Amino acid sequence: MTAVIDLNADLGEGAGHDDEILDLVSSANISCGFHAGNPASVLASIRAAKEKKVAVGAHPSFDDRVNFGRTEMHLPAGDVFALVAYQLGGFQAMCTAAGVEMNHVKPHGALYNMAAADPALAEAIAHALLAVDKRLLLFVPPQSCLEKTALELEIDSITEFFADRNYMPDGSLVPRSRPDALIDDPLEAADRVLRVLNERMVEAIDGTAVPMLPNTICVHGDTPDAVSFIRELRRRLELEDVMIAAPGKRV
Asked: How far is residue 40 CA from its own chain's centroid?
């Protein structure tokens, strides 16, 4: 199989092995400081990604350090717009300070999952992106409100598949509160990714075939075995002639 796919990871979250992960991925979604990190760590993460020639993206979240941004918060759309615009603006300034261009935006945790199903939240995030830099790419779940909104507003969207997560029949992620939410075996994850790339579908937890046409594959950087997991996944992809490369934004 010959294909090109982006491999992204959520970084700058204090896991302690970001440098090793940056050797393996093509895009980095860096915490903006609201669910993890601080201004100094944000800048350091951007500089590290630049050194490794990894595309730099912002990973905005709810203001929820206590729960790592993974608890749902029900806020007015206007508040979400302000929250995301604030994080993107600060992140863009850090990119300027580091001498690198911001490439993409990927909402984090509960914000990402809620916006996938809520048109108002999706629009708030999209309009925040447009307010900061309309050329930025938006990472989105396939067939979600985020993808639909990006299409309507002419934002370049990058559809995402999670290598280390299981899926519900409706295409959403299995909630982390369930014991079957995560995939820990890198061999199983690699098999699933290759099947998605070949067959354009993923098998949900009930056996349902869910359409899946991703442009980027996500692996989380905050798990203890993240480095070995990503290394094995990349090795398997390259054995199948899958090229790892970041998507580029409009000039």
From this structure: 22
Distance CA 115, CA 147 (A): 10
Instruction: Dump strand ranges (E) for 66-208.
Output: 102-105, 137-140, 157-162, 201-203
Give the torsion through C-alpha atoms of 21, 89, 145, 160, to 10 deg. Answer: -20
For residue 9, what are the CA distances in angstroms to 4, 57, 95, 131, 192?
17, 10, 18, 25, 17
Residue linked to tokens 């050194």: 51
| Distance in angstroms (rounded) separating the CA atoms of residues 49 and 94 | 13
Asked if residue 145 lies in contact with residue 116, where contact means CB atoms within 8 angstroms, the answer is: yes
- H runs (alpha helix) in 153-209: 186-199
The two structure tokens encoding residue 2: 């010959």
DSSP lists the bridge partners of residue 29 as 10, 57
Q: How far apart are the first and last CA of the chain?
A: 30
Backbone angles phi, psi at 34, to 5 degrees: -90, -25
pTM of the model: 0.95
What are 96-111's pLDDT values in tens digits?
999 999 999 999 999 9
